[in-house]
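Thread: Newbie trying to understand structure tokens

Hi all, I'm a second-year student working on a class project, and my supervisor (Dr. K.) asked me to get a predicted structure for one chain before our next meeting. I've only ever worked with sequences, so writing a 3D structure as a token string is new to me. If someone could post the tokens and maybe explain what I'm looking at, I'd be very grateful. Here's the chain:
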Amino acid sequence: MPEAAVGPTQGTSFGKYQLFASLGRGGMADVFLSVARGPMGFNKLVVIKRLRQALAEEPSFRTMFLDEARLAARLNHPNIVHTYEVGEHNGIYFIAMEYLEGQSLNKVMKDSVRAGGTLPEVIAARIVADALSGLNFAHELKDYDGSPLGIIHRDV
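---
Reply by user tm_fold:
Sure, no problem. This is what the structure looks like when written as tokens:
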């Protein structure tokens, strides 16, 4: 089975990246925690979002994935994950992104419910305000010629 069809095992090589943990699976791509390897012992934790091989063979999915990557690379805001690289390795398209250490919001919310409560209002308000700040930045972003890019986040 080709590498793209299976999840990584400990230390699976993917170009300059070592994939070592699956973080999730979206509609078009698989997401992995990885280490970017460089010269003289350079190592950096990153997230790799890989377009599934079966979808990469369909031009419309490949175009959609690469369009998302190009737009993501334009976004530079404290509440938006940074895109470091967009590329292709052995026919597999990927996006290398910033790794943010911590728990997912989904886990934090589930833990609060399990503990018999909800998130404190001040924390919930801060989460919503930060998310809206990032969304507003993306929605207001203009192209290099000043025309609106019209970015819509379809997962919110």
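A couple of things are worth pointing out once you decode it. Confidence is low (pLDDT under 50) at residues 1-6. The beta strands are 12-14, 17-25, 29-37, 43-51, 83-89, 92-98. Feel free to ask follow-ups in this thread.
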